[in-house]
Amino acid sequence: MFAIFPDPQRADILSGDDVKNKKHGWAVWMTMVLLFLAGFLVCWNAESRANPRMQGLGITGTGNMEGKEVRFGIFDSALFATVTTDASCGAVNSMHDSYSPLGGMIPLINIQLGEIVFGEWARVCTGCSSLSYWPCSWPD
Question: Backbone dihedral region of 88: left (phi > 0), alpha (psi from -120 to 50 degrees) or beta?
Fold first, then answer.
């Protein structure tokens, strides 16, 4: 699952070299890490809480397991949903429409942000920057 992130992370950090300021690259990377962690923690917290209406009826549970595989559980499902919607790779191991309202908001926001956090844009920018330097590397 975390093999999705290394290439875009490298591109973010190396973007500091493009602008001749390494602190810029690290600042972009840190912003993306904070957005990822905040989204994951909100999603995991919302999904691990039981439905208050069910608790009012006397039904106790460990959280929202609807639409999730039992072998993965709530933690892995929330982590996978956050990682894959941040990177826009399209993989799912749980149904995002079965998440609680707050927990389902995170994958939807990640999808609507359009790959702001470790998405395809970093791979595209890496390709564009390497193409822009390509003619300069030709021998005279």
Answer: left
